[in-house]
Amino acid sequence: MRSLRTRITVTMLCVIFVALLFTTLLSAIFIRRTESRKTDQLLLMLCKNGEKSLDYYFDSVQNSVESVAAFVEEDLEGTSDEELSEHMERARDYFGMMASETKGVLTYYYRIDPSISTKEKGFWYINLTGDGFEEHEVTDITQYDVNDTSKLVWFTVPKHEGKSIWLPPYITDNLDVRVISYDAPVYYKGEFIGVVGIEVDYTTMAEEVDSIQFYDNGYAYLCGADGKLFYHPRINVTDSAGATKYEIPFDMSGDSSFVRYKYNGEEKEAAWVPLSNGMRLIVSVPESETKGEWIGLIQNISLGAILVLLISSLFLMVYTRRITKPLEELTEATERIEKGNYDSDLTYDADDELGRLTRSFKKLSDNMEAHISDLNEQVFVDALTHVKNKGAFEKMAKELQDQIDGGAVKPEFAIGAFDCDSLKIINDKYGHDKGDAYLKAACNTISNVFKHSPVFRIGGDEFAVILRKDDYLNLDTLSKQFDIASETTNASAAVEPWDYVCISKGFAVYDPERDSTVTDVMRRADKLMYENKRERKESGYHPFGP
Length: 546
Fold this sequence. Notes:
Shape: elongated
Structural class: alpha+beta
CATH architecture of the largest domain: 2-Layer Sandwich
CATH superfamily of the largest domain: PAS domain
Number of helices: 13
Number of strands: 16
Oligomer: single chain
Strand order of the largest sheet: 3-2-1-6-5-4
Largest sheet: 6 strands, antiparallel
CATH topology of the largest domain: Beta-Lactamase
């Protein structure tokens, strides 16, 4: 048999430990989910910002090429072969103006298909130093097969596709510089004339991507929809080996903007967005870095929980020395019984001497309480309707009055008064047994509606209800339900008058400003009930006659 002090100390420590453990686990789950969402949001935000910057960059190139292509095709209208050189000069001036207003242009060109003209080849301007565009000797297209899209991709691919297109990175002719380009085919009366295009310096695009960083080892890169790398800050994709590498080994054609994958033995998480030129911008970060913050938070919470457990242990060891509550409860219960109050609240039930004494005393108290309860049931129950009687009403009214007189917080309650109409007529005309049936039907209707509140029969044909808690809050709704219940009962009642329910009602809510006693509330309820009775009589309502 363990001592009282030991049992209380161990029990309390176990409860505290379980509560702290449960709280710590919930905190860990919540923090992990929150940090994961935060990381995803930050990754996506960086992607979106990078997307806006890169798309603005790419769109400016695309718009310039499309504008030049439209100008060239319009200027070709009515141009003869002899006037082709003049057309070329106009295109040269317009293209030069557009290229100078476009960021990151390395070269721009307008090339004529050799099958259209062998004299006019077009032009090619370059800006390698950043000091301005200079005309460069154009590539001799005639030495290539213009139908072979693996050669002269800036010319053959848009011709083969028949539409404007962004080309993957390639080494530009004669300059040995890695570029990406946007090219548009030029048509006149349905016939292919040539290609206008702009080549963008690969390093300019790379600088835009390199500016996107996240944590210490997070980075951004570009790839195609199939995952093939276009640019990567840590992989040289310009050589033959790097050009076929992948970091994310699956395509990105779905709706999801977030991926988790393993690369070079390291778990990573990333967000991606499509760019206007068909590429995918990915921002990736090692999971080990994103975990660092939430793991640190969880560790701090765990240390705090351990500290609370230690402090609680010291407190309980000191506090349990002073525990005398069970003995005090027994002493107080004995004094109450001595004064005639047999109600006791003894909860101690341990397997020790004090526990056995408490259980024996509680059995005695419970037997006395049960006996008194049986007597109360007989004294305070109405013999006819089996609801509470007037004595029970007065007892509860006194309890409410005590709360009104002595409580700092006034009670919230309402009283409903009911009177069965025409009971005397039924008694005189059909007999008291039919009157009793009428009273029972009326009582059942009241009890069914106000089933969560005590119902009292306080007179021959008078009933009362004291409403607390939910019924008090829903008084108006219950009042309407009572009317509906009465109508429903009357609609389905037999032809006999005592089967109907005809009840006048009145409700009064306790108002501390105007009511000093429970009797005041009851008087107001009675007054409202009689007003209801008068209104009903004036309206001529009665289901079985006057």
